[in-house]
Amino acid sequence: MGLHESFPAYGGRGPSDLRLGIALGTVATIFMVLRIYVRLRMNKFGTTALIWSLVAWVFTTLTQIFGIISVLHGLGNHITIVQEAGELHHFLLFTWITVFFFNLAIPTGKVAVAAFLIEMNSQSNPKIRRSLILVAAVNIIVNIPQVLLVWFQCSPPNALWDPLLQSQCDHRKSVYYTYFVGAVAAISDIYLAVIPITMLVPLRIDKTLKWGLSFLMGCGVFAGAAAIVRTWAAKFIMSEDSSYGVGILFRWGEVEEWIVLITMSIPPVWPLFRPLTHHFIKSTASRSHPQYKQDGYYGNYGSTTRGNPSIAPPIVTTTISISSQKGGPASATTVRPSSSADSLSRCGEDEPETTHTILSHNGDPEGWVEMSHLKEQNRT
């Protein structure tokens, strides 16, 4: 027996919304499990951001669960079909519960992203730190009325899910305020996606890694685009075929929520994928930098009178680490194979400070990036 037989109001755009939400939710949940594993087993960085992320994940999961129940009772299907199936009461009840948790999940996700970027930035750039705090605070403040307005659209409040009392509800204030909150959410998503790129671009690291990470973290702009679409779709709450139109709002709302959680989880789980990226970077470097020849002029240059094999040029890789001291500067560490030339190459350089990183693995000093004093680094 299929879902259509068990839930006669199920249909329209609802099934595709349901599949999309489950797929994105599964990916986001896997990332959250990996984040917890990395935090417990590999490094101690990012506890505050992880806690906020877990709260956002709980609210988003509750939104998705009640959204699925709403879809089964007619969300995304035409209102005439919902009425004929006698599911209008359940559709209204579960849809507004979904909206309630959605209004909690959206600002929490923004705060989680801001918390991670604040921890990544530490005290290195006070302006960025203050701007991130401002983004988090604004999203919390503007969403408090949004959460409360859900339950005060009707008089009495239970008319919200009573089909016979819908004439006593006025959704205009809630919808108009949704436009404002949606604009704030879209701008916040775009800003939170651009800030980490501005942190990465000035760093002197492998270009493939730099632009790859910039692209992955910049995918948050898709959450901003989704916020714009779902804000536009809020007008369908007041339409005659509201159950069908609100399906658009639900689809893009779940895309926004899950993409925020997915993109913000990429840097913390990087230690698990770092060996793969290093292999790719080394392969790229070997193709772009030819090895020394073993004969002729270069062969004589690379050999010794004792018959030792020629010495290949050392492979130089640049990694980024985060200072273990609060507010400490970030450092770009050059890692070379052990050789007699190291003592000369290090001449005049300061000893690196003790570091801990988001992306470190088994104590290696290689990892994620905290920005600080980039201008001073670039002058050296």
UniProtKB/TrEMBL annotation:
Keyword presence, RNA-binding: no
Segments passing through the bilayer: 20-38, 50-73, 93-118, 130-152, 176-201, 213-238
Bias (Polar residues) ranges: 322-343
Alphabetical UniProt keywords: Membrane, Transmembrane, Transmembrane helix
Compartment(s) where it occurs, according to its Swiss-Prot or TrEMBL record: Membrane
GO annotation, cellular component aspect: membrane
InterPro entries: Rhodopsin_dom_fungi, SAT4-like
Domain Rhodopsin: 34-274
Keyword Transmembrane in annotation: yes
Region Disordered, annotated ranges: 322-380
Superkingdom, taxonomy of origin: Eukaryota
Pfam families per the UniProt record, alphabetical: Fung_rhodopsin
Record membrane topology: Multi-pass membrane protein
Family from the record: Belongs to the SAT4 family.
Record PANTHER family: INTEGRAL MEMBRANE PROTEIN, PTH11-LIKE INTEGRAL MEMBRANE PROTEIN (AFU_ORTHOLOGUE AFUA_5G11245)
Name recorded for this polypeptide: Rhodopsin domain-containing protein
Native source species: Penicillium antarcticum
